[in-house]
Amino acid sequence: MVNTTFCTSGMVLAKAGDGVNSTLSGGGVLIGSDYAVDVWITEAESLINTRARYNFTDNYSSLNDDVKKILQGVASDLAAINAIAYDMSGYSSRTEAEDKINILRDSALRGLSLLGDKKFQDFINNA
Predict the structure, then answer these.
(1) In a domain, 14, yes or no
(2) What is the pLDDT along the chain (127 residues), one digit of tens a residue?
(3) Can you list the positions of beta strands (E) in the chain?
């Protein structure tokens, strides 16, 4: 079983919205023996760590709450994109699903940009 650090599957599903496939919320979609949403969260965590060139996962307990909230936001945005893309049939239209993806992508890109900024890294080390 994978361990998620930055966010919960509930945060991801809330961002994906009411149209998200109901089998995802029940944990019915597995990748191997792991829930798909949890796998998507851990993928997002790895992407964040790599983009920032800092292993937030291993150092999570020492981070201040402001940093944790940014990580939570970016990880749940990225994982929610996968949840929506998994099955768009529950949304009122494909356009609605794509709009949600675009909004989440923009939010994730803003957060990733911040996490990769040298001044932010200085803030983390001095917080």
Answers:
(1) yes
(2) 799 999 999 999 999 999 999 999 877 898 888 999 999 999 999 999 999 989 999 999 999 898 999 999 999 999 999 999 999 999 999 999 999 999 999 999 999 998 888 887 777 776 6
(3) 30-31, 34-35
* Predicted TM-score (pTM) of this structure: 0.93
Range(s) of the domain holding residue 75: 9-121
Q: Is residue 4 part of a domain?
A: no
Distance CA 16, CA 26 (A): 14
Residues 6+ apart with CB under 8 A from 56: 5, 6, 45, 48, 49, 63, 67, 71
127 domain-assigned? no
Establish if 55 belongs to a structural domain: yes
Length of the chain equals: 127
